[in-house]
Amino acid sequence: MRKQILGLCLGLAAFAAAAAGVENKWRLQFSGNAESAGRIVLELSPSVGDPIRASADIPQGLGENDVAKSVRGALQAQAGKRYSVETDDGEDVLVKKHQGERDFIVTVVENSVRGVRIGVGAE
């Protein structure tokens, strides 16, 4: 049952991202502290082409600013040639396409870190 609920939630998140449409710049807002160790997996899906998936392992006890830095590092490692990734205000991560790249969608594929919430919005 738990896997079915998780699948439904991921499907709804993907639908919401698709409804938002592709954009050239996204903001990820992290809030809350890591009450447990876990993993955050994000996917950057261009309007045409293969998606990029990045995974960040988050240890228990990290604050929202350090969670954002960990996710930024994972995104830079996977997407740095196609997208610009930077932190803003400590707890936010901005992802922008490089010139010549297609607009894209950001989707939270997994967040198993208890206490950490991720808001995704077009910039």
Describe, in plain words, how this protein is organized in 3D.
The longest helix has 19 residues, at 2-20. This protein has a 4-stranded antiparallel beta sheet with strand order 4-5-1-7, with helices on one face. Strands 3-2-6 form a 3-stranded antiparallel beta sheet. With 123 residues, it is an alpha+beta fold. The chain has a single domain (2-122), classed as Baseplate Structural Protein Gp11, Chain: A, domain 3 (Alpha-Beta Complex). The protein is built from 2 helices and 7 strands. The chain has helices at residues 2-20, 64-79; strands spanning 25-31, 38-46, 52-58, 83-88, 92-97, 104-111, 117-122. The model has no long low-confidence stretch (mean pLDDT 89).
Brief overview:
The protein contains two helices and seven strands, in the order H-E-E-E-H-E-E-E-E. The protein has 123 residues and is an alpha+beta fold.
